[in-house]
């Protein structure tokens, strides 16, 4: 059931860093993005894969982690992602990726969950820093980074409290809580 | 296998219009969007559902169909969508939906395919006309329309020809062909 996969696909930010995600796995995941819809079928998305510790260490410092957790600087050593898929917009094809990167990223993460992996779409990126780390040509815009690995945290969905606060938080057992709007709140007609 | 669902999820534009998509089905599909990732967990997406002929007839003329098929004005009567899910951005929550609508729309369409339905994400919308048809408040931006129904066309993926043309086309049997870039073309490192 797709609902099961979508429900299990939470945004994970703590991983067993020793778990290796193979290049073949990353290519299979990108293939799911490739087979997904693209506005006017332009397919402007290009992908950079990383799954070795040296490359990963160059990418990690350019990412901003969990903005609402002000007392947490992101995953410590040992819990950092084992792999990244970096989504680029190819300006030689189109100046905009529309919402193609959202479509492709969801396909990729659902594929990751099916493989007992997990990850997080990260849009809060220090793009200049990452461009430099990747030695990336101006031809490409950085649009999204998907962090991947074997999750070592529990993430649960809660109803939104009466104050309407949507900020995720962690309880004393380090379980990550994500308040989600109800179906009745989001369907307006 | 998620790859099977993603592969079967092609953009369908011709439907058995007599096939009824229930409100319950539409709500189940929106729930898949609800459970999908949202940038900074803001969840600015709101949804309007339509599955009755009168409402559908108000929505249809505001949509632009298959831009590359210059000799086709969109599905004729009898082959129009049975239902629509309209994705809105709630400006009271956020001025931008980021790529949330892409993420949610992919979840919704994968759910539709699992239910033996199909559809098309439509971003080429006459927004003023649709706003008027829906009597929609300025609080909401129209970001995407998902057309849904029981597909009555065959859509196939082809490799891109040597001329690099990505425009979809229909052959003499009315099979819809979609050229997709290869995995080696889209992975740049």
From TrEMBL, chains A, B:
GO terms for molecular function: oxidoreductase activity. The keyword ATP-binding does not apply. PANTHER family: NAD(P)H NITROREDUCTASE YDGI-RELATED, NADH DEHYDROGENASE_NAD(P)H NITROREDUCTASE XCC3605-RELATED. Belongs to the nitroreductase family. Keywords: Oxidoreductase. It holds the Pfam family Nitroreductase. It comes from candidate division KSB3 bacterium. This is Nitroreductase. Residues 8-63, 100-150 form the Nitroreductase domain. The keyword Cytoplasm does not apply.
């Amino acid at each position: 059931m797709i609902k099961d996969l979508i429900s299990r696909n939470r945004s994970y930010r703590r991983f067993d860093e020793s778990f290796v995600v193979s290049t073949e796995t990353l290519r299979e995941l990108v293939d799911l993005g490739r087979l997904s819809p693209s506005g006017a079928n332009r397919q402007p998305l290009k992908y950079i894969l990383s799954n070795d510790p040296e490359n990963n260490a160059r990418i990690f410092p350019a990412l901003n982690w969990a903005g609402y957790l002000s007392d947490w600087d992101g995953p410590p050593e040992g819990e950092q992602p084992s792999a990244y898929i970096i989504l680029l917009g190819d300006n030689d094809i189109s100046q905009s990726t529309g919402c193609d990167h959202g479509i492709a990223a969801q396909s990729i993460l659902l594929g990751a969950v099916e493989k007992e992996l997990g990850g997080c779409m990260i849009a809060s990126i220090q793009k200049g820093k990452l461009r430099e780390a990747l030695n990336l040509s101006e031809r490409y815009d950085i649009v999204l980074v998907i962090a991947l690995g074997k999750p070592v945290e529990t993430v649960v969905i809660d109803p939104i409290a009466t104050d309407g606060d949507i900020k995720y938080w962690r309880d004393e057992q380090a379980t990550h809580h994500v308040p989600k709007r109800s179906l009745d709140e989001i369907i307006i007609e």
